[in-house]
């Protein structure tokens, strides 16, 4: 089932939660709504479900305008962060609930409901737990039951609100793989909300990055990581370091020092240089690089994270080096980002162009992304 | 012996007392403080609860079981018992419905004046029962417009059963609501949303999800409400008119008998009221014992 969100806004008591959001979800897609808390991702999910009503705009299920349909009529499967299992019902009764409450005309027999529940329990790999109560299950098991319950009504869309948010890291990873498998097998159009970027990038076909009630970027994991279109996305997805720089005649300056990066078609003025801490090359010093004093060096898993103070204003940046890199022990390090992206200093919403492949600067092996307009 | 190790008996006998003595959990008190606190609590209970209760039963049976039964068999007493049961049978279901509705509104919805409604629900607790009764006298008395109009249409409120029911409903209406509001607020709307998203109608959601979630709180509230409805004195006394055999409830009847120096009868009726309290208590404890796990699961989960 295609889902189309058209210019949807939502206000709560005058406080805006979503501003004019549009999004097309293709049938069978697995979509992640990713953003920090307060970004409106859960609100968007609840609007699709019909648990909230949009202040403006429309939501289409296929060709049908579902905006004014009730949550019951929309036939969506909704999985809640805290499971919301009915605690006084057994697992089988929970899963069968959606079938039991159907009008008599298309309600399956008790036996059929029970059979469906067992079938779904097999699907979520909890066979044989029909007669347990939710309180007798672990968190991961409960969430599987919640998913089975949502699938039982043969939903047109499956919506999951931070489904793994209340689970510990180990179980999260396990369930992530498992959810992907279930999705591949059942083919439901699925939207899930998460604030965990790893989860979103690993699981989803497309990631919708949201911030402050707006969609910042929609794209594959590669798109949002390699080609972020705003400072927010760059900062939110993956690690990032920022330096305030100045553009002068197509060259980037950090205070009084040319840092060896040249850009084209960028007006003079202040700008922010974004790069990934691990995507840097170390240099011997001299001109055309960023040089800094090491203030801290921490071992993080497979790499060493080095914090540098750069330039007269002592801007702090982080870079990552291989653990056994000889330079890591030095007190001064010079480097240049291999890939980077320049945003106007206002950090703003100006339109930003993507790739410019090449001739700018010495870092010609790198894919350069620059801001075209300020 | 291996049994000793299994039961946790100390192997080096000298080591344990020293260890036990040197460490006390920070949140526990010393033995002296413990003893004092327990004595105060138990002493208070004995003096103010157990002793009067025993006194009631002793007084009732002072002249033997025959006299006791005869006192209960009096037509006026039977009428009082009947009236009390009738009033409770009307007031408790009314407050059950009202309590669930009020708790539902307060716990599940956001609306203007919610804080005010919460305060209003508590009003009968903070107002003296005599005032609660007096309100109805002013409202339905012969001097009032409403009272005159009703009188003209042959409807008696004051000094009749309807007045007693109204006063009882007023005094007991916070019990169910107060029990349910914190419970329902704590449970939130997640389960209801889940049920609705699965296609359940509003009524099905209430019947299959909300009601089972609150049933223990509801039962508890009803028990308290019932105990109070049968035992209410002040408000009922103001509106009843104390007509023997007609508008006398059990508590009022106790007072009349007592004032007539008919101690055996007074205490006999009192034993019934006291028994009601005991039965309520036992019933509640039994429920907690029998369904304790489920109650705990419902409360926490």
UniProtKB/TrEMBL annotation, chain A:
Keyword field: ATP-binding, Cell membrane, Membrane, Nucleotide-binding, Sulfate transport, Translocase, Transport
Domain of life: Bacteria
Cleavable signal peptide: none
One of the GO biological process terms: quaternary ammonium group transport
Keyword Plastid: no
Name listed for the protein in its UniProt record: Sulfate transport system ATP-binding protein
Cellular-component GO terms for this entry: ATP-binding cassette (ABC) transporter complex
CDD domains: ABC_CysA_sulfate_importer
TrEMBL record, chain B:
The keyword Zinc-finger appears for this protein: no
Region (Disordered), start-end ranges: 1-22
Domain ABC transmembrane type-1: 81-282
TM spans (from-to): 35-58, 79-107, 127-150, 157-177, 261-283
One Gene Ontology CC term in the entry: plasma membrane
Membrane topology category: Multi-pass membrane protein
Superkingdom as given in the UniProt entry: Bacteria
Descriptive protein name: Sulfate transport system permease protein CysW
């Amino acid at each position: 089932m295609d889902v189309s969100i058209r210019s949807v806004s939502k206000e709560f008591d005058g406080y805006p939660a979503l501003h004019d959001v549009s999004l097309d979800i293709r049938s069978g897609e697995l979509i992640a709504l990713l953003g920090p808390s307060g970004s409106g991702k859960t609100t968007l999910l609840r609007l699709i479900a019909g648990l909230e009503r949009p202040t403006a705009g429309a939501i289409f299920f296929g060709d049908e305008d579902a905006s004014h349909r009730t949550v019951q009529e929309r036939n969506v499967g909704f999985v809640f962060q805290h499971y919301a299992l009915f605690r006084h019902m057994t697992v089988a009764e929970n899963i069968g609930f959606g079938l039991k409450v159907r009008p008599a005309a298309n309600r399956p027999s008790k036996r059929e409901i029970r059979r469906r529940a067992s079938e779904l329990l097999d699907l979520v790999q909890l066979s044989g737990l029909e007669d347990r109560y939710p309180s007798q299950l672990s968190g991961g098991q409960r969430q599987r039951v919640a998913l089975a319950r949502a699938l039982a009504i043969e939903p047109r869309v499956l919506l999951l609100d931070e489904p793994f948010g209340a689970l510990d890291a180990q179980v999260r990873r396990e369930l992530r793989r498992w959810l992907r498998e279930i999705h591949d097998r059942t083919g439901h159009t699925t939207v899930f909300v998460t604030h965990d970027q790893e989860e979103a990038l690993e699981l989803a076909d497309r990631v919708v990055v949201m911030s402050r009630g707006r969609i910042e970027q929609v794209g594959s994991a590669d798109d949002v990581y390699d080609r972020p279109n705003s400072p927010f996305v760059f900062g939110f997805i993956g690690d990032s370091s920022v330096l305030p720089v100045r553009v002068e005649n197509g060259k980037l300056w950090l205070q009084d020092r040319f840092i060896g990066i040249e850009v084209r078609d960028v007006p003079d003025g202040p700008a922010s240089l974004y790069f990934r801490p691990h995507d840097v090359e170390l240099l011997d010093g001299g001109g055309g690089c960023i040089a800094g004093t090491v203030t801290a060096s921490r071992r993080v898993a497979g790499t060493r994270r080095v914090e540098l103070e750069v330039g007269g204003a002592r801007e702090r940046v982080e870079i990552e080096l291989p653990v056994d890199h000889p330079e890591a022990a030095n007190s001064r390090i010079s480097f240049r980002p291999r890939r980077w992206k320049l945003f106007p200093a206002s950090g703003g919403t100006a339109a930003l162009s993507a790739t410019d492949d090449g001739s700018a600067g010495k870092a010609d092996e790198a894919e350069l992304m620059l801001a075209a307009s300020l | 012996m291996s049994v000793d190790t299994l039961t946790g008996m100390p192997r080096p006998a000298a080591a344990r007392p020293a260890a036990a003595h040197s460490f006390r959990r920070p949140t526990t008190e010393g033995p002296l403080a413990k003893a004092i606190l327990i004595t105060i609590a138990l002493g208070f209970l004995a003096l103010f609860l157990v002793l009067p209760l025993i006194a009631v039963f002793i007084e009732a049976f002072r002249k033997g079981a025959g006299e006791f039964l005869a006192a209960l068999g009096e037509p006026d007493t039977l009428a009082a018992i009947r009236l009390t049961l009738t009033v409770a049978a009307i007031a408790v279901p009314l407050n059950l419905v009202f309590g669930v509705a009020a708790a539902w509104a307060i716990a599940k919805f956001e609306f203007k004046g919610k804080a005010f409604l919460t305060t209003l629900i508590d009003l009968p607790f903070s107002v003296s029962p005599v005032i609660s009764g007096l309100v109805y006298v002013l409202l339905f008395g012969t001097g009032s417009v409403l009272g005159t109009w009703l009188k003209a249409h042959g409807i008696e409120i004051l000094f009749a059963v309807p007045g007693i029911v109204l006063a009882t409903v007023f005094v007991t209406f916070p019990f169910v609501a107060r029990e349910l509001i914190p419970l329902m607020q704590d449970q939130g709307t997640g389960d209801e949303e889940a049920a609705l998203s699965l296609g359940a109608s509003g009524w099905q959601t209430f019947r299959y999800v909300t009601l089972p979630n609150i049933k223990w709180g509801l039962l508890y509230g009803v028990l308290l409400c019932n105990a109070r409805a049968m035992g209410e004195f002040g408000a009922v006394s103001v509106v009843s008119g104390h007509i023997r055999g007609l508008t006398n409830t059990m508590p009022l009847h106790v007072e009349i008998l007592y004032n007539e120096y008919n101690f055996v009868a007074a205490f006999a009726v009192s034993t019934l009221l006291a028994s009601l309290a005991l039965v309520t208590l036992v019933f509640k404890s039994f429920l907690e014992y029998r369904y304790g796990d489920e109650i705990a699961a419902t409360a926490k989960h």
